[in-house]
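ARCHIVE CARD
CATEGORY: sequence design from structure
SOURCE FIELD: tokenized fold
FIELD CONTENT:
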């Protein structure tokens, strides 16, 4: 009898209610205490305020179990596992170190749950209702809130979750503050996560973010801290970012994000953005693969200023406007053969009257990487033509001549066509009206209309015809025109080739 444990160590306090005493026993066994009614209509945690005392557990009781609870029964592992209970009062576990898992399945909390600066094994709140969750700087392997309802805000900034944060189908009436959050595996907010005001992930470091089909900021009204957009992830670092089919109010801000793998925003929709303003900001983003095949709605403009992308997937026809200044990409899709007209129209729409050479050069490099050299040259010609629209009138004439004669050096064969045309024209004219010898009676080569024309057209070649024969009257003026055209042909060709070789 001397070794018999004291009753207050292995037995619950006498003033605890029947469900609380059952929880004491379940806690020692690591088993689940199920207080649910067994009917969906009576087990909705949102209506938990109406649940009777047979389903109520005081927050103080839970704190006692977690912070100073009884030992596990032999062969068992302690765990707090409650289903269908109403937790009354505020459960304050601030700065606690908890050596067991915490499970609240479809439970209803009357007060705030605080896990600020706490350390624990895992926290499960699946299907539960909470007025608010304060979990700043929480340290744990897993926070699972699938199907949970948070009436107010979810504070998880600065937390370190070594495996997953699960918010699939969860509903948060206020905001989620996840700034400086660290997650070793996934931030899951798939298949209908709803956030009333905004979701912030600034400077977070997460292996993967999955927000497919999430709805952010459309139910809560004012912009608040997310004034630049309801979804803000400045300087986010992650391996994968999936945001396809997402619905967001007022804008998405991912400026400065680093995504080593894929960033997928396909079919994303942004609502409530004033016309002409940026709906999605991707300035200075770095991504291995970026998909911006956006569903239009109010998503009129996406900023990609200074972004660096391995493969960019977009929609050139019918997609949103893109701000392309200093955007760099290695591959562009779709980019099939003979798509230059579509892509040039895409550039013209995005740039408007603003002339920026880099987007043209980047597009040409993408064509060249696929072996479409002729299409790359066509893009570079379009760049030169756009530049011509910014020049003074006097300079435009010379620039226009370079385009007409040799395609700015990107079509040197065009200069050969002009030479052949002018040679044929001169041959016909001088064959019908043969010039006379400059020194009658003196010997020399016989007249040849073709070589005489070439002597006039080619400034640096001498066939001896121009020195031997002289045109007169109107024929002489025709010869002067050929000489002038020859000089224009030569100088524009040299200028164009110099431009091309200089760029190479």
């Amino acid at each position: 009898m001397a070794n018999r444990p004291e009753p207050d160590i292995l037995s619950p306090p006498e003033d605890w209610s029947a469900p609380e005493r059952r929880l004491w026993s379940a806690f020692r066994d690591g088993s689940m205490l199920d207080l649910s009614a067994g009917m969906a209509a009576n087990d909705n945690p949102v209506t938990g305020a109406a649940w009777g005392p047979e389903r109520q557990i005081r927050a103080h009781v839970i704190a006692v179990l977690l912070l100073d609870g009884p030992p596990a029964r032999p062969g068992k592992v302690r765990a707090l596992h409650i289903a269908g209970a109403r937790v009354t009062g505020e459960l304050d576990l601030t700065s606690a170190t908890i050596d067991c898992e915490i499970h609240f399945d479809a439970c209803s909390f009357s007060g705030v749950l605080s896990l600020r600066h706490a350390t624990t094994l895992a926290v499960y709140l699946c299907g539960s209702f909470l007025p608010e969750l304060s979990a700043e700087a929480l340290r744990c392997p897993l926070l699972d809130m699938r199907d949970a309802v948070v009436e107010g805000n979810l504070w998880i900034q600065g937390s370190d979750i070594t495996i997953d944060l699960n918010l699939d189908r969860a509903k948060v009436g206020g905001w989620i503050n996840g700034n400086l959050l660290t997650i070793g595996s996934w931030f899951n907010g798939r298949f209908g996560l709803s956030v009333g005001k905004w979701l912030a992930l600034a400077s977070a470091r997460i292996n993967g973010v999955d927000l497919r089909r999430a709805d952010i900021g459309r139910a809560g009204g004012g912009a608040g801290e997310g004034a630049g957009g309801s979804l803000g992830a400045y300087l986010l670092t992650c391996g994968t970012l999936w945001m396809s089919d997402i619905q967001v109010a007022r804008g998405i801000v991912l400026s400065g994000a680093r995504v080593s793998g894929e960033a997928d925003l396909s079919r994303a929709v942004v609502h409530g953005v004033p016309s002409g303003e940026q709906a999605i900001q991707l300035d200075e983003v770095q991504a291995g693969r970026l998909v911006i095949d956006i569903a239009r709605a109010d998503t009129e403009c996406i900023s990609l200023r200074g972004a660096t992308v391995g493969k960019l997937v977009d929609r050139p026809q019918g997609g949103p406007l893109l701000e392309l200044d200093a955007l760099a990409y290695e591959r562009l899709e779709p980019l099939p053969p003979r798509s230059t007209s579509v892509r040039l129209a895409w550039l013209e729409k995005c740039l408007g009257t603003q002339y920026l050479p880099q987007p043209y050069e980047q597009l040409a490099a993408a064509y060249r990487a696929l072996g479409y050299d002729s299409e790359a040259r066509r893009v570079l010609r379009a760049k030169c033509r756009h530049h011509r629209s910014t020049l003074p009138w006097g300079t435009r004439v010379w620039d226009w001549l370079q385009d007409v004669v040799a395609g700015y050096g990107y079509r040197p064969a065009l200069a050969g066509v002009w030479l052949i045309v002018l040679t044929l024209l001169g041959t016909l004219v001088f064959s019908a009206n043969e010039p006379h010898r400059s020194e009658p009676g003196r010997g020399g080569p016989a007249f040849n209309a073709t070589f005489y024309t070439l002597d006039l057209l080619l400034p640096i070649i001498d066939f001896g015809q121009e020195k031997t024969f002289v045109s007169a009257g109107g024929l002489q003026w025709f010869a002067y025109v050929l000489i002038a055209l020859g000089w224009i042909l030569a100088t524009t060709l040299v200028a164009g080739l110099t431009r091309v070789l200089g760029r190479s």
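CARD ANNOTATION: Residues 222-226 have pLDDT under 50 and may be disordered. Residues 104 and 125 are 5 Å apart (CA to CA).
SHELF: design records, drawer C
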